[in-house]
Amino acid sequence: MSSQEELPVVEGVDGDELADLLGDSVIGREEHLNAPGFVVRPDEVQNALRTLRDEAGFDHLSMLTAQDYEDRYESIYHLKKYDDPTQEASVVVPTPLDAPTHQTAEPVYRAAEWHEREAYDLVGIDYDGNPDLRRILLPETWQGHPLSRNYDQDRPQIVSFNEHKNPIEGDHLDEDSDTMFLNIGPHHPATHGVLHLKTTLDGEQVADVDPDIGYLHRCEEQMAQNGTYRHQIMPYPDRWDYASAGLLNEWAYARVAEDLNDLDVPEYAQIIRTMGAELCRIASHLLALGTFCLDIYGDFTAIFMYSMRDREKVQNILEDLTGQRMMFNYFRLGGVVWDIPEPREEFFEKTRDFLNDLPPTLEEYHDLITSNEILQIRTIDTGILEPEVAKQYGVTGPIARASGIDYDLRRDDPYGYYDQLDWNVVTEDGCDNYARLLVRMREVEESAKIIEQCVELLEDWPEDEREIQSNVPRTLKPEADTEVYRAVEGAKGELGIYIRADGTDKPGRFKIRSPCFCNLSALHEMSEGEYIPDLVATLGSLDVILGEVDR
């Protein structure tokens, strides 16, 4: 743990006032680089969190980090405010090695259920009172917790087959009910990857849906922990959300590592980063658009092919910029790996041609899609997610903005060059599948505005001031026990990373906050009482990428 005196007080949050507010629940203080930390007793978790939520306005449980130290287990609840995400606080809960148990946060934040399940699964902390504390990434029969110090990697693992049981049997089943258990996935095109939906139907309506994840768990966090800050971690983020969002993922790591190591980024490189990130956002939204319509219409339609055609144009520009089409590995700590490709005029002309063709293309999409009666019937008033429910589950990105939540880290927690540009945050109040489609389509327009302004700046930038990377030490060793959480606005929402330094050139702990993971946890709230086609449409509207969900 790092003491309050060793690090500066975080601007914008008065740690002393919050400590006074929490009272006897606090048994210690920390200062993380991004937020004041309050160490609370294991039996005071709910009181502390409820106080911070109701009296201090911390209504967003962004992430939970669980760690196994030599002398204790520890959970860190990373809290923010939807109205101002620069206002942050961390609630730290230590537990002894022989009894890693403390209160669940689930009654205060519904998002805690899935976060605590993952921490229990991988680290082994028991969250007393969690309504569904079972493994989430590994099979239920798995022996041991892989991120705990006493885990035996050589222990044989035997996964037995269990008959599927009706998850609502004994709770909702009666003589008049007509229930049926239905497996959707894991190998099904409508699940957008290896996702298994354990669905219970009551007649033709969804009575319960339980997303079964973990089929694509690739230990990305653990691989990052084994890599050096300077060179070996950056290739991994491209593989989290692999649907053209690579530069957005890279920026999440770049932002947290640059803050941790106090690294500057030249203004010119920030503009290149901003342009590349918005190209990735457009490519990601076009893929979401095409696959969503594929789910709705149930056929390999022209709409899907049109979106792939336009996405390829973006991919071509990104390939010119980075040299790759998916796994870009273009960002570097302190900047980017190289400048705009030569001849620069051709690159800018190609980018402008795409931007000029975009307005009539989007108008064509609206003619084909948003005014289509079939799509409207399938999407309007289905998959309802009320804003307060969305906040309870930590939902962010287009999903939250389609429920009227005006939350975008590009504006609310500025980074890169976003605060120097003219653009708008897109919101809709429909709270349904149709609103989520509209938000993504309108966000493509805003991304195009950002890219156009970046191109103009880059064209006019003096040649002798085109600095693409600051002077970064060959070996980075941040001070031991320095802790920081930072996030960017990914294509799917808040993509964050927590790092705890241990004094070496590798992270002591590396934890990824996946927006898809949090968004998917709310699926049952959006689907209960609806029909199977509505469930498929709702899942498609979430635009989940399982590589990021499972990590």
UniProtKB/TrEMBL annotation:
Domain of life per record: Archaea
Q: Quote one Gene Ontology molecular function term.
A: NAD binding
UniProt keywords, alphabetically: Cell membrane, Membrane, Multifunctional enzyme, NAD
Sequence ranges assigned to domain NADH:ubiquinone oxidoreductase 30kDa subunit in this UniProt record: 39-155
Q: Where is the NADH-quinone oxidoreductase subunit D domain?
A: 301-551
Gene3D superfamilies given for it? Cytochrome-c3 Hydrogenase, chain B (1.10.645.10), NADH:ubiquinone oxidoreductase, 30kDa subunit (3.30.460.80)
Give the reaction(s) catalysed: a quinone + NADH + 5 H(+)(in) = a quinol + NAD(+) + 4 H(+)(out)
As for subcellular location, the record says: Cell membrane
For this protein, the record's Pfam families field holds:
Complex1_30kDa, Complex1_49kDa
User: Chief localization class?
Assistant: membrane
Q: Name one GO cellular component term.
A: plasma membrane
Q: How does it sit in the membrane?
A: Peripheral membrane protein
Q: What assembly does the database describe for this protein?
A: NDH-1 is composed of 13 different subunits. Subunits NuoB, CD, E, F, and G constitute the peripheral sector of the complex.
The text of the family note is:
In the C-terminal section; belongs to the complex I 49 kDa subunit family.
Protein name, UniProt field: NADH-quinone oxidoreductase subunit D
User: Which species is the source of this protein?
Assistant: Haladaptatus pallidirubidus
